[in-house]
Write a structure and sequence with these properties.
With 485 residues, the protein is α+β, with helices and mostly antiparallel strands. The protein has helices spanning 2-25, 29-43, 59-73, 90-98, 126-132, 139-143, 217-223, 228-237, 448-468, 470-484, and strands at residues 109-110, 116-119, 160-165, 171-177, 182-189, 192-199, 203-212, 253-263, 266-280, 283-291, 297-300, 320-323, 326-329, 336-339, 342-345, 351-353, 358-365, 371-376, 381-391, 400-401, 406-410, 420-427, 430-432. α2 packs across α3.
Length: 485
Amino acid sequence: MLLISSLIILSVVLAKTQEMQVDLRSPDAPDLAVKRQHDTQNLSPHVPPEADSLPPDNPASNLTASALALEQASTDQPVAERVEPASAPPAVAQAKASNPPAPPQSRVVLRDDGWHELTIQPGDSLSLVFSELYIHSQLKPILALGRETRVLNAIHPGEKIRVLKNEAGALQALVYEGQGTRTLKVRRTAHGYQAQSQERQFETRIAQGSGVITHSLFMAGIEAGLSDTLIMNMAKILAWDIDFALDIREGDHFTVIYERQYLDNQYVRDGNILAVAFVNRGREVRALRYVNPDGDADYYDPKGHLMRKTFLRTPVEFARVSSHFGMRRHPILHTMREHRGVDYAAPTGTPIRAAGDGRVAFMGDRGGYGKTVILQHSPRHRTLYAHMNNFARGLQEGDRVRQGDLIGYVGMTGLATGPHLHYEFHEDGRHIDPLTVTSLPDADRLPSRQLAEFQRNATPLLAQLDTLSPTRMAQQRGQESTALD
C-alpha cells in the first residue's frame, strides 16, 4: 500500500516537471516567471521564493535566476512610474515657449526728476503701496514719527505718493499729496527721518455762468454748468429779496461770476461768488462781494447797502407754499378757522433755518402745533416754527442763534396731514402775514471811507454782468442777425 502511494506521487512529480519544461520552451516563459516572482514576493516578502529551493540543474532555477537579474536591473519605482510622460505636440510646445506668462505690471512711474511715483487705487492699503515702492521696511519707522505722518493711515484713491532713493536703493525722501491742501514731506537726515506738513496754495480762476429758468432754478443752474453748492449759495445771497419758493417764474434769468480753485492744474472745488444778477418778474437784483478792512466778507447791492436783512423771507429752502395766511377750512377739524401763518410743503427732514438772529424762547411740544420752536428776535418781533420732525442736535431753550442757523427739520407732528413747516411772524404780539411783511428795518450801508473802495472793485464786475446777461446776449445775437440780413 505504501509502495503504491509512492508510485502515484512520483508520477505526479514527473508530469509536473515535463509541463514546466514545455513552458520553458514557450516565448512567454520569462514574463510568467517574472510575474510569479513578483507575486511570491508580494505574498511573503521575508520568505525565500519556492524557485530557490529547486536543484541547480533544474531549468526552473535558471528561469528564477533570470527573473532575479531582471529584478535587480530594475529600479525601486513601480513600473507605472517609470513610464515616460507623453510629450506635448510640437505646435503646443512652440506656442508655450513663444508666449511665456507676463510678469505683473508695476504701477510705479519713474519721473524725469528721478522720483518714483505711485497713484493710489481703490482697494490699496498703505502696506501694499510701500511694498510696490520697495520701501516696506521703512513703513514702521515713518509711522512712528507721530502726528505728522498719521495722515498716511487714511489714504484715498487718486492721491499720490512719491519717493526718492539713492544709488543703493535706500529711501531718502517721501512726499504724500492728500485730497486737501496739505502735503506731507519726509526726509532722511543724519539723525533719522524728519516729517513736516506744508500748505499748498490754490490757484484761483474766475468763471461765469448764465441761465434762463424754464422748469426750476436747479435745472437752469445745472444747464449753465453750476454746481449744486454754487446754486444754493446764489439763492442764499438773494434770499432776502427773492422768495425762491414763491416768486420764481418761467423766463427769469441769472448771471453769476465766481471763483474756481485748482491744485496742480486740477479742478478741486468752487470758491466764492464775486457777483450775481437775478432778474425776477422783470425786477433785477444784484449783489457783489466785499471784504472790509477787518477781513469780514459780505454781499452788498451796487449802492453799498447790505443784502442781508433782519429776517429771511423763507426759512425753508426751495419749498412750496401749500397754505396761505388768512381764513380757511381746517383740513383735519373741518371748520373755518383763521390760519395765522404760512405753510411750506417740503419732504420730511428738510432743514429749517432761523429767520433772523435771536434767542430760543421756547422749544418743545405745543399741542396741535406738534414739535415747535419760538425765536425771540427783539422785544417786538418773534417767529414760530411748527410741526417739526425733530430739533437741531444740541439746541436748547435760551441758546442764541444766528440768521440761517439750523434749528430743526420739516415733519408732520401735531395736527398735520402731511410734512410741512407752519411759519408765523409776530410783531408786537400781532400775527402778520410773513409774505407781506414790508416794515423790516433797512439794512446797513457801507461807511463812506469803505464805499469808495467798494465801488472801485464793483465797477468791472458790474460791467461783466451786463455783458454776460442772457437778455443782453440775446439782443446782441438779434442785432448780428439783422446786420447779416
